[in-house]
Every structure is written in C-alpha cells, then in structure tokens.
Write a structure and sequence with these properties.
heterotrimer, A: 274 residues, alpha/beta, Rossmann fold, six-stranded mixed beta sheet, four-stranded antiparallel beta sheet, globular, B: 222 residues, mainly alpha, Methane Monooxygenase Hydroxylase, Chain G, domain 1, 6 helices
Amino acid sequence: MLTTSDMERLTSSPTPSAAELEKAYSKISVRDFDFFYGPAKVLHSISLEIPDQQVTALIGPSGCGKSTFIRSINRMNDIIPEARAKGAIRIDGKDIYAPETDVVELRRRVGMVFQKSNPFPKSIYDNIAYGLRIGGMHNKRELNELVEKSLIRAALWDEVKDRLNESAFALSGGQQQRLCIARALAVNPAVLLMDEPASALDPIATTKIEELIWDLKASYTIVIVTHNMQQAARVSDRTAFFMLGRLVEYADTKTIFMNPKEKMTEDYVTGRFG
Amino acid sequence: MQRHFDRDIEDLKDLLLRMGAMVEDAITQSIRALLERDTTLAEEVINNDGRIDQMELEIDRRTLELIAKMQPAAVDLRFVAAIMKITPELERIADLAQDVCERVIELNREPALKPMQAIPRLAQDAQTMVRQALDAFVRGDAVLARQVIAQDDNVDQQTEQSFRELLTYMLEDPRNISRAIRLTFIGKYFERMADGATNVCEMVVYLVEGKMIKHTPVAQNQ
Amino acid sequence: MTHTRRRRIISAVAEGLCAAAVILALIPLVMILFYVIKQGFSSLNWAFFTQMPKPVGEPGGGMANAIVGTLILIAIAAIFAVPIGCICGIHLSEFPESKFSSLVRFAADVLNGVPSIVIGMFAYGLVVLPVKRFSALAGGFALGVLMIPIVVRTTEELLRLVPPGLREGALALGATRSRAVFSVIVPAALPGILTGILVATARVAGETAPLLFTSFNNRYWTTNITQPMASLTVQVYTYANSPYDDWIRQAWAGAFLLVMIILTLSILSRLAVRRLERMNRP
C-alpha cells in the first residue's frame, strides 16, 4: 500500500542542474502542472520535457490521468465546464496557459487524433480540406495539393485516390483512423497528440498505424497515450508512467521496459500491478 | 508488410556474421601459427580476442533491447533465441583459438616435433565445420546444418587418432613428452571447436524448422 | 403442463393480443383511407386541378386556386418557422443547462399544446386586425406558429444525438465553437432536422381552424400574399357544409387530395432521410 509520503517522494521534481538546463531544448516543457475537475485534483505537479522528432508514450492504469494530461497539451479540456489548470506547459518556449494565448491557433499547431476515429459526415476530400478551409485556404489547386500530400503522408493515398468524393464512412475502421491522422496532418502541426489511436482497431490495422507513427516521428513531435504497454514498447522512444495523477517515472523506453528505477513501474510493466 | 523492426533484425544478423568472420579469421590464423611456428601471429590472435568479446557483449545488449521492444513471435522469436545461443558459442570458439595460440607460443620455445599428420587434418576439419555452420545460418540451410552435425563423429575419431599418434612419440622418447602433451591439448581444442560448430548447427535447425534436436542421438536426425 | 409449454402458450396469447390491438388501431385509418379514396377518386378530374370554382349552382369547376393557395401558405409558414425553430433548437442543444433554455423548452411545449384555433385567433389579432384585411401572410404566420414547437424540439433532439467525437474533432483542428456547430454538427444532424421540418409541414398542411380567420378564403385566383387566399382545407370545409351535390363531390375530391399530399410528404421525408443517412452512417 502506498503512503502519501511515498507518493510525494516519488514526484517531487528535483531542481534541474545547470548542466541539465543547458541541455538540448525540448519541444514541450511541462513544469509543476496541476489539473482540477472542480474541487478534485486529478494531476499533481507534473514535470517533464518532451523532445522533438521522437515518440513519447504515456502509460498507466485506467484513471491515472494520462488522457487528461495529453488533452491539456492542446487545451481540449477547456470545453469541460469545471476544469482548471495550474502551472505551465511551454511549447517552443511559450506558455500555452498564459492568458493571452490564442487557443484556436494553439490547436492548429498541436493536432490530435482520438481513440474512436471521428471522420466528419462529409466526403474524404472535404474531411482533409476542413482544417485548411477554416484556416482561410480556398484556392482549389492549393487544396488539392495539400489534400494529396496529407493522404500520402498518412499512407492512405493509394487506397483512396480514386474515390476522394465518396463518404468518409465508406472506409474501414483502420482507414478511417488514418484519414483522421491525414486530416490532422493537413494543417501542418508541429506536435501530434494521439489518444489511444489504435485501441479500437484489429491487429493488422494497429500494426499499420504503429508503422505510420514510426515513419512520422522524423517530422513531428509525437505524444501517444496507450493502455497497451507492448505498443508503448514497440513504438516509442521515451515512456512516462503515470499513476493516480502523478508522474512516477519518465525515461528511455528501453530503460522502462528492461530495467526501471521504480518498483511501481516494474510492477506495472510486468503485470504484477493490481 | 514492412516493419521497422525488420531493420533491427537484419542489423543483428549482420553483427553476428561480422563476429563470425572475426572468429573464422582467428581459427585460420591459429592454424597458420601452428603449422608455420609463427609466434608473432599467435600473439596477434591472442590480442584480438578482446574485440571478439566486445562484440559478444554488444550483440547481447542489442538482442535484449529487441526483445523488450518488439515482443517477437514465431520465427522472430526463434531467431532471437538462436542469436542468444550462437553468440556465446562463437565466443568460446574464439577463446579456443586463443588457447591454441598460447600452446603454440610454448611449443615454439622448443624445436619442432616430428611432423604430424593427424592434427593438421583435424584442425582443417574443425575450421571447415565452423565455416559451414555460419554459412548454414546465413542461408537458413537446415540440410547443411545437419550434414555438419554428422561430421562431428569423424572429428572425434581424428582426435582419438592424433592422441594415439602422440602417445607413440611419448613412449619413444621421454624428451618428447612435454611437446606431445601440448599438442594433445591443441588437438582437444580443435575438437571442442568442432563441438561448438555442432551446437551452432543445432540452433540453425531450430531456427529454420522449429525442431529442437539438441541431445537427441544423431541417427534420429537424418 | 410443463413450464416450457405454459410459457409458450402465454407468449403466443400475448402476441395474439398485440396483433389484435394493432389491427384495432389500424381500422379507423384504413376505413378513412378507403372511404375517402372511394368517394374522392372518382371525382378527381382534370377540371378539378385546373379550373376555378364556378358560381353557386353551376356544375363543374375545380379547386385550382385552393391547391396553389395551400402550397403558398405552407411555404410562408416554413419560411417563417424553419429559421426561428432551427436556431432555437441549436441554442437549446448548445446551452442545455441554462435557465433561459429551460424556459424556452417549457414555452415550446406549452405552445405545442395550444389549440390551433386559439393560434388562429392570435394571428387574427396580430396580423389581420391592424390592416383590417385577411391575407395569406396571416394564414402563413398562424401555420408557422404551429410549426415552431415541432421544429425546435426535433432540431434540439437531433443535435443532441450527434456523437460528441465530431465536435471534438472539429475543435481539435482549430475551429471556433460556432464554426464547429455550423460546419460539422448541424450538417451531421441534417437528415433528422429535415425530417422534423417535413413532419411539421405535414401537420400544418391539414389545418383548417387557424385559416378560418386569417387567410379566410378566396373564390378567385390570386398569388398576392397580402390578399385572402383559398386553401384546400377551408375549401373542403366550405363545400362539405353546402347543400349542393356537386360541391360535396368536390369536397371529397379535395379531402382525397389532402390525404395524398400528406402521404406524399411523409414518403418524401422518409426517402430524403434514407439518402442523407447513407452519407452519415458510421
């Protein structure tokens, strides 16, 4: 049984040394981030650095706060009435919770793919073009070009290039999810957030998505929430283990799955947890 | 479907083959050092052994990481198991070449014993077996692997033969004894290299066919 | 008797009772249809559709002006009620918890229950009296008021049914809230909303009472909406009350046509929904 002092010891963020501060700058910098749903505190003092051009996975049991945390990065939690955030999340050095932040602009720089694929009830073309159109692009040629580019990048172009005007719902589950990925990529975000992107898919579609993520990481900062530990091991470079709203351990994926520092982490990845 | 782990598997295979090449070189050079009584060459072999040991550590590290990240299944799993068992065998074979060279250095301090026939032949056979074992691994050739395993009996016989030959030298003249004993050791080392090659081949059969033929009598394996 | 056997018997009896109840409920509908078709179909002829009512006593003539009148009245009602009802429904679904929304919902429900003749009187006081003239505008207004509650409630319900994932997807792409609502959520609910509109239209197409003192009636051809206008329902009412066989015959034809119009609207709404749902079904 964990005591409060156990938890506090684990999550007190150490003051970074001068050397650490001078290290390579990270794309997303989280410092002492708290999150509340009304009176309930669901994230406690989260601090971590997420590097660019890598995949960072967030793992942990249900209700540990990983989904809440990832949705804080593009402030999707704002639409929940009693939600409140404290602390700073900096993307490219700018705090996204600063009062002058343009949330709409933030969401164009930070794209999101959801657990259950949610294509709009429009054609495949219109789905991809949606983000571009609300951004003000109406030139047919430009739209065509970017739609094609996004579908190629999401490894979907060959399968749909002849039927761009068909309804998005004509696609299979795995294709729909790749469509959602293409839709998110179309507005050229810097960061791609993925909340359990493959949990609703069959194994082959899952593998396709995982390979796609691997290919995409060269061009984006990718953060992925997954309840499937093996997927985190396969796909990510760094892994963060959350529990009860606290960040327990954050290290190279190899370290987490071969030789974690914290016993809680080890219990979780070996399945001894619970 | 292309998987990004395919590259990791290919990389591991390459590393193993590079290590295999280094081990083959060590054997070749140790045989030359023996036949040509070349102390310098023998010392070179002994010095190079450190590099082979480092390769074993590197392959071990990479293999464990691959298991942690990939959770391999079926042929991939057998591949990883094969790598983990073949690597130490190769390292042991390299150590045996090193041992041969140590005995060669000692031998070279005394004049050469009467020309032998059994040991050089034994050495060549062991060398061939190791080379063929590595070929079988590269090509996934279980048939070749089984052939190599079958040759082990032959090597054992040759070892016995060379021992008898050396025994006669020892009985002829007590001054031959120390050199003959060192040569006996050398014969034993080559025989154990052949055993190592056999073990490698057993893992190749496991990798290719999924059958574990370790510790089953040779007759059942044909 | 074993348990299983007894259960089967009870099940069969219950099924039989249900079937009987359905048949009983359908009897009036079938009888109406049958009677109206029998009486009305024979009276339908080309003249009915193209000619104006003849002066009293003269045989022949038709209800051309009434048919057109009904269509015009429905159009006015729709133009009035659809925007108001839809925007209202959108507001209710976007702000479901506010006091204002509860009030609006309550008001819509009350309005739904108000007798149509009372609404007609309301339209009379509001539109007819000030200009001292009956008009199609007044009639359309009355019908529109009748339509509003239906459109509001169906729009709200349908918007609520849109999966929240769609909203999240739009917001995550950088859409503002209103953009998300109008470019994604409303289009997603469109099949249902259109059904609601067609259902509301079908309902008011058959109304008579509110038209009696708003659009009144008109024996002549007109498409001027500031003038009184004939409508099928009022015309049927007038003719049915008359002593002339010819007029009574025409009343049956009118009734038949009314039933056909409503039937067609219902079928059209079904077809439209099915086609649009193909775009929508995940």
